[in-house]
Design goal:
17 helices, 6-stranded mixed β-sheet, single chain, globular, 3 domains, 517 residues, Rossmann fold, 46% helix, two-stranded antiparallel sheet, alpha/beta
Length: 517
Amino acid sequence: MTLEREQDLRPVVPAGSSSPAGSSSPAGAGRGAPAFDTGQLVRIALGAYRRPGWKTRLTRRVALVDTVAVTAAVVVAYLVRFDGFGGTALDVQYLAISVGLLVAWSLALRMAFSRESRVLGTGAPEYARVVNATLAVFGVVAVVAYLLRYDLARGYVAIALPVGLVLLLLGRYAVKRRLVAQREQGRCRSRTIVVGGREGVAHLVGELRKDRRGGYEVVGSCVPGGPVEPHEQVAGVPVVGDVVDGARLVGPLRVDTVMVTGSDLVTPRTVKRLAWDLEPWGADLVLAPALTDVAGPRIRTRPVAGLPLLHVEAPGYSGPQHVLKRAFDVVGAALLVLLFSVPLLVTAAAVKLSSRGPVFFRQERVGLQGEPFTVLKFRSMVVDAESRLEDVLGAGNVGVFYKPRHDPRVTPVGRFIRRYSIDELPQLFNVLGGSMSLVGPRPQVPLEVDQYDDEIGRRLLVRPGLTGLWQVSGRNNLTLEESVRLDLYYVENWTVAGDLLILLRTARAVLGRDGAY
């Protein structure tokens, strides 16, 4: 939609309304104080503006999936515990309990805001709300049963809780996958205006474009002073107004989200007025603080004098969490060695019989705090690969993270085991020895570490990993900047739960073979 003249920007006003929601916005600042619109309060209370249809359909679909999952869990628990439907008094009591549990469970999922369109499809935050709501319901059930001195069958609870939780999470995952597929096709996306300074808008637009799965489609930007010249753009997005015009443009641009980023002219009063003016439109207001690559667990919100202050905890590189991580690494690596014992032996035989040279490739890498160690891998190249390095890369062209896509030094067996990351399995013994972790930044050779600056050097604050964010996010298809960003994000925000999730995503990335060569 091209907006060239002031009259083209008039918002669509619902029937019976005397003025647009933006009529009392800061857009009138400097043009005289706007008259108070009592009709706006009525429109806010009645919800005069409806959200996009896809959000309504998505919410209904999730509610249906939740209902099916909860009903199935309760029915299965009842049938297994009481061997089918019977006519005894005890069975009748548990039928009533089952119905009550089903209703309470469904209400808890709704009250936990796990079905909000802004939460659906976000992954871990959505799943956390589902888990918390489920545990809260069963916690209340246990307390009530204790207070009433009712002997609730433990087998009934022991079946309903895990079965229901698994079904709920699987259902949410299925909905998420469908939503992601639709968003990658350009559907089910929130039409968004970004408000703020030109530099901040350009950065935010660039980040939103990197992740189409986030579901935001930026259709315009509002910057200080508005368009400097006709058809001005910021990061490829048309400038459609001043920072005070956000709410006024919701109607004509059919926007359902307004994002605000930093600018000297975006004052607290401007944001507050914008929030008020967006209420009748039903559009979401999203504030993008000047924080990048900081995970939620490190952020605490503390209200002080009406100000939502964000406290950002410093990343920790020692302490109980790291002791727990080390225990997780040892137990996990030992189990994986047992699990992959046959593939390890078969691969060792294939490497030995297919080409001249040792089974394992040993190379010095740089690990925790810059300490060198010897990394183990199945040999995937010819014996004299190191001496032929310059022939492949060209003199002086060895860059940080650089890896040639078509390397003639790789053997046929080596190409196969690289494709499925089987060559990395011997690093499980590095994990057991303490020089590596199951999850972490990729281990680098000294030549690459010599090129580090202070920022990239922060990768050495934790043990390098057998896998990591770089592997589950594109592997060798990533640029240097993307690889560094992911590694630094992991270094400062890792959790044991996050490590487990990365391991699960690694299996999918390996089977998909995306970016492996």
